[in-house]
From TrEMBL, chain A:
Membrane topology: Peripheral membrane protein
Source organism per UniProt: Poecilia reticulata
UniProt feature, compositional bias: Acidic residues: 769-786
Gene3D superfamilies linked: Leucine-rich Repeat Variant (1.25.10.10), Longin domain (3.30.450.50)
Protein name: AP-3 complex subunit delta-1
Pfam families: Adaptin_N, AP3D1, Mu_AP3
Keyword Protein transport: yes
SMART domains from the UniProt entry: BLVR
From TrEMBL, chain B:
Residue intervals of the AP complex mu/sigma subunit domain: 5-142
GO cellular-component term (any): AP-1 adaptor complex
Protein topology in the membrane: Peripheral membrane protein
Annotated organism of origin: Poecilia reticulata (Guppy)
Subcellular location(s) of the protein: Cytoplasmic vesicle membrane; Golgi apparatus; Membrane, Clathrin-coated pit
Chief localisation class: membrane
Quaternary context: Adaptor protein complex 1 (AP-1) is a heterotetramer composed of two large adaptins (gamma-type subunit AP1G1 and beta-type subunit AP1B1), a medium adaptin (mu-type subunit AP1M1 or AP1M2) and a small adaptin (sigma-type subunit AP1S1 or AP1S2 or AP1S3). Binds to MUC1.
InterPro entries xref list: AP1_sigma, AP_complex_ssu, AP_mu_sigma_su, Clathrin_sm-chain_CS, Longin-like_dom_sf
PANTHER family, alphabetized: ADAPTOR COMPLEXES SMALL SUBUNIT FAMILY
Signal peptide as annotated in the record: none
Lineage: Eukaryota, Metazoa, Chordata, Craniata, Vertebrata
Taxonomic superkingdom: Eukaryota
Name of the molecule in the record: AP complex subunit sigma
């Protein structure tokens, strides 16, 4: 035995320690993998020894190798061995290794429970410390459950060193074992007032993290945090608290008012940028904007002007958040943001670009885009240039081209963008061209002319194969020229351009469009020539088609080939008719008659499934398995394919090959139809006279290529400016005239007043065709919160008193006791079942009698879902103008969110799917997701729309508030008196009561009023006493006992006291109004 | 301020330290650190310290030849994360006495111990540098005490 120990120790002297290993790896740069594999072999030997020091050394080396990316999971058990060493030196290494290498699926973690528990209760605080640290990295649901109680005890440890670690790790425990939150919370709350600042800060950290995810459960802590905020000087803690308040204020607007003063003080006084930045962020998110908003923007300006890149970046980031809610405040800093486009840091430039997107208005769009175009020209690197390109298009096309006053200008911008070299976004430009040309009817003449020029100069776009991204534009150009060919000035020329042989080098899908649209053009040419006495032009067009189309008939692309051969046959037939002087134009044109209207992207999805149609049902029962085996011919294509794709590899030897070749030559020689390669053919060609005499002209390529006839967008900017000036001048003249007439001497102020948004009239009457939607389109699709979010499980009411059953499981030592105390496997039924109930309607009317538009809305619980509420809004147009492009938007709160279609951002508005002629009303429905229904809520929103008069159209906005009362979450549900009695007996319900003063109406009227306004049903009525019942969409029971003696008193019971309180308040309100 | 992970790597992209505060498999960790290291190394030196990467915010800073990089959640404060990185560098500096990359390579377990005293579960547990260093010193002392009386002979069992 002794000898063995001696041997082990001597071996140990020769073992590599960590330093040796690191040095070794550095010395074996060439064959690192090989060196490490020998090291791992050594480590394996070391791990087999009994000496714990050797093992710890080995484990330490393994931890290093793990970091380098080597798999060490095989040593998990050895790590546990080292962890359980009694010596701190080794224990420390063991826990480090475990925290680096273990994860939830490591099975040996099960074995560590007792060891960790022992370490947690060790008299040595550093043993406890390493155990807590390690646990924070590899805690599993099982460990959390088994150790929650031990850790909770440590939160009251005598040493602050342990307390603070225990508090922090509780957060991880809550995530893994949500049932522990309620029992542990009182103690956690206590720690907010711990004498040690470190522990206090740890508690703030944990509660803030919890509250950020589920703020409503932590509202009751607000006063405590308010006290901490005003007393603490620790920036780390302050940042956390401010973040917490940012999450709480949307739920409790009164908090906002209280916070304004301390927040303003902090913003003014702090020198810490991190704290300032947090304050600003909270102001942006919360309801403080009115009072502190401007201060924040000022501070942000200072950040952006700072030379520190980091502050600049964050300043811009915060600005972009402000932009979503208060665009005006940001717009005044346009100069600064445009400056940032010149920054040397690309990430800052991209941020600035993002901001520009939201800053454009009708007035400055051209100017901003002009600046961006300059940047496009000088941008280095295709990524940034492509980013600029997409941004330009985004900026111009946003909200249905809202800011574009001159579409000719926009088309010229798009055409200019096609000259970008090497861009990947050809398809983007193409889709914009198509969209504009289709939807803006007034622009078609111009667009068609531009596209014809593009087609004519197609060689500039396709010249370089590297630039093939841009040739997508030709797809759009060809289609536009074809579809709207009636606007073409010279269709024959364009037809010729579309049938050039070079077209055959374009990608197949573009060629197909070319061929198809050539046919449309051909039809237009025929139409134009018909009636002319001289029919040569029409015949020439047919001849052109017949000459050029065969090129496409040979195309390798199936689509091109098919279309070309169809059209070729058609043209040949037409030519025959032409020769007989038959008029064909009308019939040919009939082929392409009818206008294509744009269809909304989601239209297909919104078509409601007709009643009685089951899309999942089989139309024909699928054949049974055995049958399909016999029915071979079914799979004709599938069977043939492998034959083609897998050429047979038959073994053919060289001799055989030579023999076959010889035979083939023989056969060819004897075949009179086989054209033989003549060795002299080239020579013959060279000897032909006159070839050398053809003059070759050198083309000077240094002259920049300019596409003839392409417009310069800059011209438009100038023109637009002049136009606006003229308009302004005219207006002024008119005003002056008026003034002269009136002879009123006051006020020059109008002259200097800046041009407002509404003053700018678009250059042409623009009618943007709206996209078509199917009738009875359904409201948007569900968009549920991520069900895998671990924080969802922590949405637990913390104010409810602890029930006896809610205790952390305590591991007992003897099996006999285990039955008495709650055992590990037992879990409380903490989750509330959410029964799905039918909803009834409640009508809350709120009139918004503004002169233009009136809205009435009605909130209604969703039939299927306990967290969905449908708001039907009736829009009534009370003015005499036409209203269109209505967009409905609501500023979401944390609790209630407007459901937006997939893919749209959280601040995008929803398009109202109809337009309103004067005096007409229509209804739209919007779905909201509501998390908590216990509190009433007000959501602010805006409706933007375009008012169209005969000569101009203006963009207008209407602000409104949606009031979600608690009553609107109640659903009239009948209840039988025995069930009602049982419910009252169950003792789960909290009671509350209210007295209605000064109500003197008959009792049945009173009941009817409660039933109608608050969705209750009468369970039983005896004389002047009645019991009533209702149920919330999330299944809360609400019971009322209404009595009239001299005054009306209502005793109420509900399993959710907050909800009950609010419902009673609302009932009181109803009766105070009458 | 909840860190999701922290990485230290050299200019050549060699990982020097990694600490993960969320459970991920080795494969995912490797993929994330490889991608992220490449992304950061590709950035130009004058660029700002923040980037949005997948759904995370990355905050990084280069000190001499080492990059320190933290990932935090979307709502977290970038500047305080930068402060955390700086704090950690200061702690290393104090502990090793003007720290260099080699210190961290050869004493990588010490670097972890310091980090563990400073952050726990991704959350800053101690904002006082003095307290962190004191805790480390005392733990080191405990280690030395345990090691000191153990001469080789003792271990062999001859005394």
């Amino acid at each position: 035995m002794a000898l063995k120990i001696v041997k082990g120790s001597i071996d140990r002297m020769f073992d590599k320690n960590l330093q040796d290993l690191v040095r070794g790896i550095r010395n074996h740069k060439e064959d690192e993998a090989k060196y490490i594999s020998t090291c791992i072999d050594e480590i394996k030997q070391e791990l087999k020894q009994d000496n714990i020091a050797v093992k710890a050394n080995a484990v330490c080396k393994l931890t290093y190798l793990q970091m380098l990316g080597y798999d060490v999971s095989w040593a998990a058990f050895n790590i546990v061995e080292v962890m359980s060493s009694s010596k701190f030196t080794y224990k420390r290494i063991g826990y480090l290794a475990a925290s680096q290498c273990f994860h939830e699926s490591t099975d040996v973690i099960m074995l560590t429970t007792n060891q960790i528990r022992k370490d947690l209760s060790s008299p040595n605080q550093y043993d406890t410390g390493v155990a807590l640290t390690g646990l924070s990295c590899f805690v599993t649901p099982d460990l959390a459950r088994d150790l929650a109680n031990d850790i909770m005890t440590l939160m009251s440890h005598t040493k602050p060193y342990i307390r603070k670690k225990a508090v922090l790790i509780m957060y991880k425990v809550f995530l893994k074992y949500p049932e522990s939150l309620r029992p542990a919370f009182p103690r956690l709350k206590e720690k907010l007032e711990d004498p040690d600042p470190g522990v206090q800060s740890a508690a703030v950290n944990v509660i803030c993290e919890l509250a950020r995810r589920n703020p409503k459960n932590y509202l009751s802590l607000a006063p405590l945090f308010f006290k901490l905020m005003t007393s603490s000087t620790n920036n780390w803690v302050l940042i956390k608290i401010i973040k917490l308040f940012g999450a709480l204020t949307p739920l409790e607007p009164r908090l906002g008012k209280k916070l304004i003063e301390p927040l303003t003080n902090l913003i003014h006084s702090t020198s810490a940028m991190s704290l300032l930045y947090e304050c600003v962020n909270t102001v942006i998110a919360g309801e403080y904007w009115e009072s502190v908003g401007n201060l924040c923007v000022q501070k942000l300006r200072i950040l952006i002007e700072d030379s520190d890149q980091n502050l600049k970046y964050l300043g811009l980031l915060a600005m972009s958040k402000i932009l979503k809610t208060h665009p005006k405040s940001v717009q005044s800093h346009k100069d600064l943001i445009l400056q940032c486009l010149d920054d040397k840091d690309e990430s800052i430039r991209l941020r600035a670009l993002d901001l520009l997107y939201g800053m454009v208005s009708k007035k400055n769009l051209m100017e901003i885009v002009k600046k961006l175009m300059l940047h496009v020209d000088k941008a280095e690197g295709t990524t940034y240039r492509d980013e600029l390109l997409t941004k330009i298009i985004d900026i111009c096309s946003q909200s249905n081209y809202q800011y574009i006053t001159n579409f000719e200008w926009y088309i010229s911008i798009l055409v200019e963008l096609t000259r970008l070299e090497g861009t990947r976004h050809g398809h983007l430009i193409a889709s914009q061209m198509l969209d504009v040309a289709i939807r803006v009817k007034a622009i078609r003449v111009f667009a068609v002319a531009q596209m014809a020029t593009l087609l004519d100069n197609a060689h500039l776009l396709t010249g370089n194969t590297q630039r093939n991204g841009i040739c997508e534009v030709l797809y759009a150009a060809a289609w536009i020229c074809g579809e709207f060919s009636e606007h073409l000035e010279n269709p024959t020329q364009t037809l010729e351009a579309m049938l050039r042989p070079k077209v055959a080098t374009l990608p197949g899908h573009i060629q197909a469009v070319y061929v198809q649209n050539a046919a449309k053009l051909f039809a237009t040419v025929l139409k134009g020539e018909e009636g002319n006495t001289d029919s040569t032009a029409a015949q020439e067009a047919s001849q052109l088609m017949i000459d050029r189309l065969p090129l496409f008939v040979q195309s390798a692309n199936l689509e091109v080939q098919e279309r070309a051969s169809c059209i070729l046959q058609l043209v040949k037939y037409i030519q025959k008719l032409q020769q007989k002087d038959v008029e064909v134009a009308e019939e040919v044109n009939a082929l392409f008659a009818g206008e294509l209207n744009p269809v909304a992207p989601k239209a297909q999805k919104k078509v409601p499934v007709p009643e009685g149609l089951d899309l999942d049902a089989w139309i024909n029962e699928p054949p049974s398995e055995s049958e399909s085996e016999d029915e071979q011919p079914k799979a004709i294509f599938a069977k043939e394919e492998p034959k083609h794709s897998r050429p047979r590899h038959t073994e053919v030897d060289e001799k055989e090959l030579a023999r076959r070749r010889e035979a083939r030559k023989q056969e060819q020689a004897n075949n009179p139809f086989y054209i033989k390669a003549s060795p002299s053919s080239q020579k013959v060609y060279q000897e032909a006279p006159g070839v050398e005499h053809i003059p070759v002209v050198q083309i000077d390529l240094n002259v920049p290529l300019k596409v003839p006839g392409l417009p310069m967008s800059d011209q438009y900017v100038k023109m637009e400016e002049e136009r606006r000036q003229k308009e302004r001048a005219e207006k002024k003249k008119k005003e002056k005239k008026k003034r002269k007439e009136k002879r009123s001497g006051r006020g020059k102020k109008h002259d200097s007043a800046p041009e407002s948004e509404e003053d700018i009239t678009p250059a042409h009457m623009v009618d943007i065709v709206t996209e078509e939607m199917p009738e009875n389109a359904l409201p948007s699709d569900d968009d549920e919160r991520d069900p895998t979010d671990p924080h969802k499980a922590l949405d637990i009411d913390l104010d409810k008193p602890l029930a006896d059953s809610e205790k952390l499981p305590v591991r007992s030592h003897r099996a006999a006791e285990a039955q008495k105390s709650p055992t590990d496997g037992e879990t409380e039924n903490a989750t509330l079942p959410e029964p799905k109930k039918k909803s009834s309607k409640e009508k809350r009317e709120k009139k918004k009698d503004k002169e233009r538009d009136r809205k009435v809305y009605d909130i209604q619980g969703n039939l299927q879902d306990g967290s969905q509420v449908v708001v039907s809004v009736i829009f009534e147009n009370k003015c005499s103008s036409f209203l269109k492009s209505m967009e409905f938007n609501v500023l979401d709160s944390l609790n209630s969110k407007l459901q937006r279609p997939e893919g749209s951002g959280p601040h995008d508005g929803l398009v109202v799917p109809f337009q309103l002629p004067p005096g007409v009303s229509n209804e739209a429905r919007f779905v909201f997701t509501v998390q908590s229904i216990v509190m009433p809520q007000k959501l602010k929103g805006t409706l933007t729309f375009i008012v169209k008069n005969e000569d101009d159209s203006t963009h207008e906005k209407l602000d409104f508030k949606l009031h979600f009362t608690c009553t609107s979450y109640l659903i009239t549900t009948p209840c039988y008196s025995d069930a009602f009695a049982k419910l009252l007996e169950s003792g789960d319900l909290k009671s509350s009561s209210v007295r209605l003063e000064g109500v003197n109406m008959p009792f049945h009227h009173l009941l009817a009023r409660i039933c109608f306004h608050h969705h209750f049903s009468v369970v039983e009525r005896i004389d002047s006493c009645a019991s009533m019942y209702s149920r919330s969409i999330q299944g809360h029971h609400v019971c009322l006992l209404v009595k009239t003696v001299s005054t009306v008193s209502i005793d109420a019971k509900c399993d959710e006291p907050t909800l009950l309180g609010n419902v009673l308040d609302e009932i009181k309100q109803t009766f105070s109004q009458c | 301020m909840l860190n999701i992970f922290m990485l230290l790597f050299s200019r050549q992209g060699k990982l020097r330290l990694q600490k993960w505060y969320v459970p991920l498999s080795d494969k995912e960790r490797k993929k994330i650190s490889r991608d992220l290291v490449q992304t950061i190394l590709a950035r130009k030196p004058k660029m700002c310290s923040f980037l949005e990467w997948r759904d995370l915010k990355i905050v990084y800073k280069r000190y001499a030849s080492l990059y320190f990089c933290c990932a935090v959640e979307d709502q977290d404060n970038e500047l305080i994360t930068l402060e955390i990185i700086h704090r950690y560098v200061e702690l290393l500096d104090k502990y090793f006495g003007s720290v260099c990359e080699l210190d961290i390579i050869f004493n990588f377990e010490k670097a972890y111990f310091i980090l563990d005293e400073f952050l726990l579960g991704g959350e800053a547990q101690e904002t006082s540098k003095k307290n962190v260093l004191k805790a480390i010193e005392q733990a080191d002392l405990l280690q030395e005490e345990a090691e000191a009386p153990r001469s080789v002979l003792e271990e062999i069992g001859l005394t």
